[in-house]
């Protein structure tokens, strides 16, 4: 096919506010190296990583909740998820759905013409389980907020599905993050799982995937989103700011404790979350949008035999498992809204405002 030397893209020009996102119509189209494929992007989902990297929230100099606005105290040495500086300009965007149009000399040529989604964990493929040698698509390299993107051929998966491009672009980051959390916490049939931020991309994925594992699922979210979450199969739903979380749980599931807390919120509610774990319970975390600095009574941790796990880099099998879940229709997309690429800043503001249930996607 005839591929233009220039493409439309939104580039991040530095850490700061939404004004750091610049829409370009003349950005150089990337060329794949020998192990890469070139994807003609159809849609790309938004994620917290985009916002947190732009604003510099990952820096340890920042202790505030995620606001999406610029921070004045960012340390230039650790402003990203991996604790290292970025070079700019950078095309962000991890959750690509598109069609492979070119394959490098060493890449799988059969991928050409196939609709794919991206596995966003960049790995040393000679040692793929080494967490110290990972990067993230759209962070450590250019991503999908553009007409074309390149990525290692081992980071794409062909999806046979009647879902739309925008719907497929809701899955990769949110659902692999959620599945990684549940795997770390060893969620199984008979567990009860309390999910914070249940209406967000990761939260709604956690809800579906925990239920898929046979757990009783309780979601915390704003009440006006409860009807939508009920459709996803939540067994019970609680207001995100209950006066007493234990009492709310007692009313919801007839017991004041759960075996697992899956948390992407953190912040002031953290002590209540930990107090609601039964003896031997498990806490798993992959976010802290309400604030990264929390209070922990170590006596609760050790006297109740609790297990805490953080979850970021996922095992290599999870992406392939996710594609299987999609193709077998065991999970479904929660697409809140779509925006054209040129309105990425507007889409990101809607994402920050969190009035939606599910994921926001930009389309080409």
Main attributes of the structure:
2 domains; Quinone Oxidoreductase, Chain A, domain 1; globular; single chain; 7-stranded mixed β-sheet; alpha/beta; Rossmann fold; 23% helix; 6-stranded parallel β-sheet; 364 residues
Write the layout of secondary structure elements.
Layout: E1 6-12, E2 21-28, E3 36-45, H1 48-55, E4 95-103, E5 115-118, E6 121-122, E7 135-136, E8 148-152, E9 156-158, H2 165-168, H3 172-184, E10 192-195, H4 201-212, E11 216-221, H5 226-231, E12 236-239, H6 245-253, E13 258-263, H7 270-275, E14 277-285, H8 298-303, E15 307-310, H9 317-327, E16 335-340, H10 344-353, E17 359-363
Parallel strand pairs: 10-11, 10-13, 11-12, 13-14, 14-15, 16-17
Antiparallel strand pairs: 1-2, 3-4, 3-8, 3-17, 4-5, 5-9, 6-7
Helix pairs in contact: 3-4
What does this structure look like?
- The chain folds into two domains: 6-171 and 333-363, Medium-chain alcohol dehydrogenases, catalytic domain (Quinone Oxidoreductase, Chain A, domain 1, Alpha-Beta Complex); 174-310, NAD(P)-binding Rossmann-like Domain (Rossmann fold), CATH 3.40.50.
- Helix content is 23%, strand content 26%.
- The chain contains ten helices and 17 strands.
- Strand 16 (335-340), helix 10 (344-353) and strand 17 (359-363) form a beta-alpha-beta unit.
- Helix 3 crosses helix 4.
């Amino acid at each position: 096919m005839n591929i233009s030397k220039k493409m439309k893209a939104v580039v991040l020009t530095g850490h700061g506010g939404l004004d750091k996102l610049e829409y370009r119509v003349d950005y150089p189209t990337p060329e794949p190296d020998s192990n890469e494929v070139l994807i003609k992007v159809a849609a790309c989902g938004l994620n917290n990583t985009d916002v947190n990297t732009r604003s510099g929230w990952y820096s340890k100099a920042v202790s505030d909740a995620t606001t999406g606005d610029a921070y004045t105290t960012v340390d230039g040495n650790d402003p990203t998820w991996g604790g290292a500086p970025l070079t700019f300009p950078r095309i962000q965007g991890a959750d690509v759905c598109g069609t492979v149009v070119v394959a490098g000399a060493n890449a799988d040529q059969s991928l050409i013409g196939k609709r794919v989604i991206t596995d966003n964990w960049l790995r040393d493929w000679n040692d793929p389980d080494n967490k110290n040698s990972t990067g993230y698509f759209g962070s450590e390299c250019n991503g999908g907020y553009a007409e074309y993107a390149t990525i290692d051929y081992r980071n794409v998966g062909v999806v046979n599905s009647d879902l739309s491009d925008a719907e497929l672009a809701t899955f990769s980051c949110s659902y692999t993050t959620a599945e990684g959390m549940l795997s770390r916490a060893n969620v199984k049939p008979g567990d009860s799982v309390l999910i914070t931020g249940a209406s967000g991309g990761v939260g709604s994925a956690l809800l579906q995937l925990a239920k898929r594992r046979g757990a009783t699922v309780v979601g915390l979210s704003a009440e006006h989103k409860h009807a939508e979450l009920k459709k996803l199969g939540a067994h019970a739903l609680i207001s995100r700011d209950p006066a007493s979380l234990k009492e709310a749980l007692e009313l919801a599931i007839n017991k004041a404790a759960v075996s697992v807390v899956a948390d992407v919120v953190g912040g002031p509610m953290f002590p209540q979350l930990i107090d609601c774990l039964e003896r031997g319970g498990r806490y798993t975390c992959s976010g802290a949008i309400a604030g990264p600095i929390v209070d922990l009574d170590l006596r609760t941790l050790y006297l109740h035999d609790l297990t805490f796990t953080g979850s970021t880099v996922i095992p290599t099998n999870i992406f392939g498992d996710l594609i299987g879940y999609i193709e077998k229709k065991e999970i479904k997309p929660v697409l809140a809204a779509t925006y054209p690429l040129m309105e990425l800043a507007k889409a990101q503001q809607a994402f920050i405002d969190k009035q939606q249930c599910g994921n926001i996607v930009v389309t080409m």
